[in-house]
Amino acid sequence: MKLLTTEQFFTEKQNQTDQTDYRNVDVSVLEIIADVQKSGDDALLRLTEKFDGVLLDQLTVSEEEFWEAEKSVSQEFKRAIRTAKENITAFHANQTEQSWFMNQTDGITLGQKVTAIERVGVYIPGGKASYPSSVLMNVIPAKLAGVEEIIITTPPNSDGKVNPYVLLAAKEAGVKAVYKVGGAQAIAALAYGTETIQKVFKIVGPGNAYVARAKKWVFGDVAIDMIAGPSEICIVADDTAPPRFVAADLLSQAEHDEDARPILITTSEKMAEAVQEAVAQQTEQLERKAIIKESLANNGRIIFAETLSEAFDTANKIAPEHLQLMIREPFENLANITNAGAIFLGHYSPEPLGDYAAGPNHTLPTSGTAAFSSPLGVYDFVKKSSVIHYPNQALDRISRDIITLANAEGLSAHSQSIQIRKDEQDDA
Fold it and tell me: pTM of the full predicted structure?
């Protein structure tokens, strides 16, 4: 990991240009979307064979496959997924919102009606790993919001079946409709519908570059949660943090993929040196060390800050997906953090705790968007309608102001809409 001062880090960041060119990805994605819109299920089956190497008889996961999945997973996994479900449910239950109304004088009623989105699609990736935790994190808030129909799309394995851990998580979360389709074609199917897959109103869930770009292109025809970038962790550590803990937590994100961004900000040069050594030692013991080494080489940084105040300022400018405060008195310093997707306090609150079982959502803003975005929550699965009721006398009392404002904007039909009612009231 490269050791930098805060000034060197931001100079490096400023001088870096985004080398990611999505033009070729977008060409492929737009072709896939058009194909699915035109050919429906036929396109999904053909593209699944092309990209996943699997010739499917049907897209829908059968009851028998759910049963086989349940039989194939261990009791230990079932206990773990149920514990995670309980914690995630308990946390997100605090986010539920209710419609509200305020009754004013003269019979005026104003309010806000909260309504769940009717149908939601959840994308669960396949490929390098299975993600049953993402099933819970995306489905449970939707269920708590009151979404009536939730469907999952996920790529099939080479045997034409869906990962059993994903299916067990779907069953535990109460989802019955799971479809064997991944990639941009799955996003297109959710956005526009096919003979088998019904169109949804919102798409959530992580995915690779093709999935992310597909979500970008269908946005507007359907809502999406976010366009997520590479996974990030930023650790602020002083001399109280155990270096081997810090190293392990950095590596927990580096193993996601080669573009993951592990960053340490520390006020201790001794800590920086010890973490570098621990990272090198621990990396050699890990299964995904090839991915980790590339991630560390590409994006791994250790930033030396003169003071904790400088460290907090640096972290806020980065606005990381995950932020760990491994310092003295983390609670007392929480107010100094303004930009982070999730904040982990102390030496025994590592990021993987949030990924799996603590309760808060692990779908978080990335690439600096934590400066203006929030974690996925129950609030993402509802829509809100304003409610306005004025009786005629109340409208009459405010009509002159409305007419004045409408005329000032040159909108005479707006003015007439009010005036015609005022005239009727005056004639009564």
Answer: 0.93
